[in-house]
């Protein structure tokens, strides 16, 4: 269980880093903000679904 949680958090951190890097490289400021908010909302939803 503990190892699964570490892997889950590591994958979320990698997804956030890659997402931010790609957003900075390819899209404008407004679109970047909207996509970042959607990504954060998705990760919060996954967190609460995974640990309930």
Structure description:
The protein has 52 residues and is mainly α. The protein contains 2 helices and no strands. Helix 1 (2-26) packs antiparallel against helix 2. The longest helix has 25 residues, at 2-26. It starts with a helix and ends with a helix. The mean pLDDT is 81.
What brief labels describe this structure?
mainly alpha; 52 residues; 2 helices
Write a concise synopsis of the structure shown:
With 52 residues, the chain is mostly helical. The chain is 90% helix and 0% strand.
What's the order of the H and E elements? HH
Q: How would you sum up the global shape?
A: elongated
Please, what is the average pLDDT? Answer: 81
Low-pLDDT segments: none
Distance between the termini: 14 Å
By DSSP (H or I, 4+ residues per run), the number of helices equals 2
Please report which band the strand proportion falls in: under 5%, 5-15%, 15-25%, 25-35%, 35-45% or over 45%: under 5%
Helix content: over 70%
């Amino acid at each position: 269980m503990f190892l699964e949680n570490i892997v889950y958090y590591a994958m979320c951190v990698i997804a956030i880093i890659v997402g931010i890097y790609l957003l900075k490289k390819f899209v404008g400021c407004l679109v970047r903000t909207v996509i970042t908010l959607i990504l954060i909302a998705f990760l919060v939803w996954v967190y609460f679904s995974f640990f309930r």
